[in-house]
Design goal:
Helix content is 14%, strand content 41%. The chain has 9 helices and 27 strands.
Amino acid sequence: MSDPILQSNQSSAVVATVNASTVKNPWVYDEKDRLTVPHSMQLLPIPRQSGSFRPHSECEFAVAKNGVAQGFWLRVNIDYPHTDSIHSWTEFRFLDLIDQITLSTSGRVVETLDKFQIMARYHQLPVSRKVVMDYYAPIDRQTSNKEYNIWIPFYMFRDPMRYGILTNFEEPHQVTVKWSDLICSRMAHYNADIDAEVTDPLTVTDAHLLVHYRLLDEPQLNHIVSKNYGDGMLSRLVGIAKRETVERVPGGDGIEVLYDDLPANSGVLDALDSVADDFKRAKTVSIDLKESEAIRALYVMVVTNESDPTWDNARSTCSIKHVKLTFNNTDVIDVSGEFLAQYGSDWDMMRGEDFSSARGMTHNILRIDLGHGSDATMTNVVAMREISKPTLTVTFEQQYPKKVYPLLDTNGIPVGWEVVPYEHQVHVLYETATFLSCSANTGRVQLSAST
């Protein structure tokens, strides 16, 4: 019996042209380019080599020579001083534990990621993975010695098979972790009627670097060295995270709310509600972009700069209403923040996120992709050194504060409340296109600025 589709194809000029081209018949058994050499894998916990777990201190981990290192996690054990209380972190979740993490080799920095750069790379994960990540940063009644595993998205994370570190050949690598202030908040129960949220120090009792290795036999390792380093120097074009200096936006003067202006028996929440609209006004800030390397994408986020986690909305991201990117006095992008949230990471497809209601550590982070949306391949770069007057203009909505102080008259008598606005920080982050080179003679690794 003849098939109508096959019959119609016999007279089709399009089908004839396709058949005359180089086509692949997927039903022909052919495993070429689909097989990987058999190998072993291992997740190896690496203990701390030096340093301490104190707030604002550093500790170092030596990456073992054990095959191809393809992924990194920081396993942290935390002791909560009050296990009967409800502890919580800010919107940054477990990233509040760290200030920055650095990958280096023989004293040369390969890549440094602060918590904002890590959040930017988390932003590129599928929605389902981000939901799981937020789930493992709970706000609940904690037990002592709680374990957290923090994924560290160094440059090889997009294609670890291609860009993993050949530890057997390259110079030794180290990972250095700089801790934050290690402060969270908890609900303190003073008696049956009085609860209060207070700051609480955390204690890091132990930490390991967990490294994902792929182990090959000796002939395959020699084959890699021969093929990759045979001409004396291997250079790979990788995406290295960079950033602009943080732009600080002052919160401005506090707003006084007198008792006489409030209904009888009003409290702090009533004072906040009375001035809520004053704090939700949009602010606009223009940032001169000083990066000189070639970039493939940039991120922008606005966060409240409040170190005390007991204040609501402390260290949280703000809604970005509008973004304008200008090169050579010409507008390259001039769109709403919601448009960028849906399309900025891949101009041809929506990300499937509800920009208006989604919450989590990557909420309100916007990405401007300068290529074709593929992170695994290099599709385009912009040579920033050749751009005149690169400027990013961001309009954002101030985060609603709940930072209130008693307002006293000259005699020290309370007469109302002073509601103090937060300072905001604008973070502009880059994915640069950088050559990562390794010498065939010594295994020495170095970065070359790509302009």
